[in-house]
Amino acid sequence: MRGEFSRASLGHWPDLTGRARIATGEAGVARCRRVWNQGMPSESQLNPYRCDQCGAANVVAAPVLYQEGTRTYSGTFYSGVTQSHAALAVAPPKPRGYLRPFILWGPAIIILAAWASVGMSAIYKHPSSSVLRSSTVALFLLLCAGANCGMIASLRRIARHNRDIYPHLYRTWERTFICRRCGRALVLPL
Ligand SMILES: [Zn+2]
Q1: 176: helix, coil or strand?
Q2: Does the chain have fewer CB atoms within 10 Å around its N or its C terminus?
Q3: Which residues lie across from 73 on neighbouring strands?
Q4: How far is the CA of 185 from the centre of ligand 1 (A)?
Q5: Measured in angstroms, how far is the CA atom of residue 24 from the centroid of ligand 1?
Q6: CA of 149 to the centre of ligand 1 (A)
Q7: Which residue range forms the structural domain that includes residue 140?
Q8: Is position 78 within any domain?
Q9: For the chain, how many structural domains are there in total?
Q10: What is the pLDDT of residues 154-164, one digit of tens each?
Q11: What's the CA-to-centroid distance between 67 and ligand 1, angstroms?
């Protein structure tokens, strides 16, 4: 993301256009950045809060734009939130909810557990039942355990996403600036 931004900024520094064209890939970007740092400060370096596409200084932070477009209303019997299209477009990232795995795996676990318990009670009542029946119950139990493992795995995946990836996404959102003129979103490196 940082690399992308630097590359985009370089395009607006006329002195560097020749050298910027040589640069390809990540190594090239690093080389460009070094030259950029040694040379004269560019306009976007002096004022980083400037759109790197149209040059307008009218950029606004995504959290501000989100706040501006979000209105809460309340009456005697109603309350709620309305959001403009602009606010919806710059909505902050949300942590993932834990409900989905329960909805996906829950019914399968309940059905398999019910079948297994029905089979087990049948074996308990009629111990002379065939071997096939007990193996079927074992299969149900195995599938039930598998569904449990699946649910736990997806819950852990969500927890890992919320712990490791979500804070990064949120910090990036906080540093995102939107140009009011052309709508370009740029992430400012800290
Ligand atoms: Zn712009």
Answers
A1: strand
A2: C
A3: 80
A4: 8
A5: 25
A6: 49
A7: 99-174
A8: no
A9: 1
A10: 999 999 999 99
A11: 20
